[in-house]
Amino acid sequence: MDLEALSPRAALVVGLLALLPVTWYGLGSSLSAGVVSAINVVIIVACLYVAFTPVPGGHGHDSSEAS
Question: What 8-state DSSP symbol labels residue 4?
């Protein structure tokens, strides 16, 4: 599987699968630690989703400029 072909939406689903072990941890030991861990997972996945989405306009670089 070519990782460059993986869309950010598909990667989002894979990232959210990390909530399963966090839920298991939260239910098994400490509920408050599980909630904090789940919030951290959601923040990390959201940041990665934003970081890997295509940028409209091509990062502001004009390919016709020669340096």
Answer: G
Which residue blocks in 1-67 are alpha helix, DSSP H? 8-16, 19-28, 31-52
**C-alpha neighbours within 13 Å on the C-beta side of residue 57:** 3
Q: Which residues contact 33 (CB under 8 A, 6 or more apart)?
A: 25, 26
The span from the CA of 15 to the CA of 27, in Å, is 20
For residues 42 and 48, what is the distance between their CA atoms, to the nearest angstrom?
Answer: 10
State the chain's mean pLDDT as an integer. Answer: 79
User: In this predicted model, what pLDDT tens digit does every residue of 28-55 receive, in sequence order?
Assistant: 988 898 899 999 999 988 888 888 777 7
d(CA 67, CA 64): 10
pTM beyond 0.85 = no
